[in-house]
Fold Homocysteine S-methyltransferase.
Amino acid sequence: MVELAEALERRPVVLDGGMSTALELAGHDLSDELWSARLLLTDPDAVRAAHLAYFRAGAEVAITASYQASFDGFAKRGISESETARLLRSSVGLARSAASEVDGPRWVAASVGPYGAVLADGSEYRGRYGLSGRELQAFHRRRIEELCAAGPDVLAVETVPDVDEAEAVLEVVRGSGVPAWLSYSVRGDRTCAGQPLGEAFAVVSGVDEVIAVGVNCCAPEDVAGAVAVAREVTGLPVVVYPNSGERWDARDRSWTGDGGGFATSAGEWVRDGARLVGGCCRTGPDAIAVLAENFTAAGG
């Protein structure tokens, strides 16, 4: 199969949507600190089915259910290190199994979520956890090693809120030999921790494994500006997978706003230079199906 980096030289590629969204649409309760990672343990068939739904909708890349999976998080549930290692590797295997059910090129991206995700307190949208770079490297290293051992096509270092964590993760990725993309969570033209995006994207310099940079889990209106900065600073392919455009109301515990225009922006992002395009929170298989259709019409 053609490597993802090579494919991006020829054309844009469609990513999937939110794993949690697909699982919730299928009736699964994710009100748990482990979030979708819990189903790696309790219902792996559901994870595989979610991947398959996205592939059938037109996605070409599946992002694994390992975003919130970690040795620390599973240890809190009394799960051993050996079992945690198996679960991390299984996340890649489930996506690979779903890919075998559909025709055409399909790639598996092993999700490497931020440290804040394991805290389950929203700190992944703030960053600045009070940990040293060495401590962040130690947290990420063990699970990245297990994910790499499972043979993904790429590591999805995603929803990173600040430059400090990005630098720590990239030190782990450096020398691994596994391609990776780096994707920040942003507000406007800055990371969630407030750093300028030019500074944030520049940290990939010299890390040969990085094949794309960009943003995810952000408002759709933040994408175009991020694409321009990423291209100017790095010259690498750009990855974008924003939320639907709806907003979470913590008081009412509900989503508000209209996410209907999400997929129609794909043409603009592709014309601006995005090469990996998908969705994050509140974007399910139906949204990806529309995205893929519009994406193809725009030249993807």
About this structure: The chain has one domain: 4-299. DSSP finds 13 helices and twelve strands in the chain.
